[in-house]
Specification:
single chain, alpha+beta, five-stranded antiparallel sheet, 7 helices, elongated
């Protein structure tokens, strides 16, 4: 629950920040759009006024300048005033502004003036008879268009920002959830590792402290050194497994895959564990079909996976027990199965056997990282787990992969499991 709350808070903060940035960007763009619109429209009005001025500078043949008679080349409504030489101001009958400020009577190039509370763009010229003709165009339609654009931007803004916020929240939660899970998992891994390392360190510290406190017998020293040796090896295995998992988690790409013959790999593993099996009188063997079982995977990874499975099988099998590695081919998949004669894995624990630092039994010697490493390898190599019981009542750990060279095959050996971990 706390993990989910942390993700929600983080994604909400990121979404608010993203929405704020979009709001600022939207404001800049909106102001820019209105500014460009006004600039463009004013340029068009100025062009129309300038064109009207040139169009009306000379009267048509035989037409005197007796009254304002503005003409526009484009048919745009033009306001007109005529200022006669005696100072008389005449306005066109269609012109609602009869008065013209004194500062506007000498205008030449287009300028904006306020007439009766309305902005009007004016331009003028002096006629051949000495009178001045001032032409203008009201900016009220332009301001109306600007108000429409601003209104549309105001309506769009909250909708856009809401969509951005909700989208950022959804994306943020999707992106942050795996990161948060990885962080929580790292914290749990560190706590579990610290707990696992504390026990062997305590044993080593206790034995060394007792050895240094007073003189002991040779037998006592031998026993103490055996405890220190055992705990040191346990720490070595634990640190090695932790470093492997850390490298695996940090690596972006898997090593180069190669064709690996599972039967050959199984025989090599049996040779490697022969001394262990002999020391405990275990019967360790391989059952392989005549058909070759070749899969594509990093050889070192498969070697480590099989080593983990066989090591677990040997550790949990009683003295004189049986450990069997079986290779099978069924359809287009090859399987590798390790059976032991140990206590087996209870059905209630089979869903958690791949969790880091989880151990299904109290048998000493392991730290609960072996199957976590194996699971990481299986997932990275596109394999499938099957967890069940062996014929002798112990554990059966089986993995299957697609054949490297699929073709017509006869089903032999254990059947591969379905996707994910299965229980038999």
């Amino acid at each position: 629950m706390s993990e989910a709350m942390d993700v929600r808070r983080a994604s909400t903060r990121v979404a608010l920040a993203a929405t704020g940035l979009v709001a600022v960007a939207y404001l800049v763009v909106a102001v820019g759009v209105v500014g460009l619109f006004m600039q463009n429209q004013l340029a068009q009005i100025d062009a129309q006024l300038t064109g009207s001025v040139h169009f009306n500078r000379q009267p048509e043949e035989g037409e005197p300048y007796e009254a304002p008679a503005p003409r526009s080349p484009g048919g745009v409504p033009i306001l007109a005033w005529r200022l006669e030489t005696d100072g008389t101001l005449l306005a066109d009958t269609r012109n609602p502004f009869t008065n013209l400020p004194a500062e506007a009577q000498d205008v030449e190039q287009p300028e904006t003036f306020t007439l009766d509370g309305h902005d009007v763009r004016l331009a003028g010229f002096t006629a051949p008879d000495g009178d001045r003709l001032i032409l203008g165009q009201s900016l009220d339609p332009l301001y109306g268009s600007r108000a429409t654009i601003v209104g549309a931007e105001i309506v769009i803004a909250p909708v856009l920002l809401l969509v951005v916020f909700l989208g950022a929240v959804a994306i943020g939660r999707r992106v942050a959830a795996p990161i948060e899970r990885a962080r929580i998992r790292q914290l749990e891994f560190t706590a579990d590792a610290s707990h696992e390392l504390r026990t062997p360190l305590s044993v080593i510290e206790a034995n060394t402290s007792l050895a240094l406190r007073e003189e002991r017998s040779a037998e006592w020293y031998r026993t103490a050194f055996e405890r220190v040796d055992r705990e040191s090896k346990r720490m070595h295995r634990l640190v090695d497994d932790m470093l492997w998992l850390a490298r695996f988690d940090a690596t972006q790409a898997a090593p180069t895959s190669e064709p690996v013959d599972l039967a050959t790999l199984a025989r090599q593993t049996v040779d490697r564990f022969a001394v262990v099996a002999e020391a405990r009188r275990l019967r360790l063997g391989v059952e392989a079909p005549e058909a070759t079982a070749v899969v594509n995977a990093p050889p070192d990874w498969l070697d480590r996976l099989l080593g983990v499975l066989v090591d677990n099988a040997c550790r949990y099998s009683p003295d004189g027990g049986l450990v069997t590695i079986s290779i099978g081919v069924q359809g287009a998949r090859a399987s590798l199965t390790v059976d032991d004669s140990g206590p087996g894995i209870p059905e209630s624990d089979r869903a958690r056997v791949f969790d880091r630092f989880h151990r299904a039994t109290d048998t000493p010697g392991g730290a609960g990282l072996g199957l976590a490493i194996g699971d990481a390898i299986v997932r990275a190599t596109h394999g499938r787990w099957s967890v069940g019981s062996s014929p002798s009542g112990g554990a059966r750990m089986s993995v299957s992969w697609p054949l490297a060279f699929p073709g017509p095959r006869t089903a032999t050996g254990p059947a591969p499991g379905r996707a994910g971990a299965e229980t038999a």
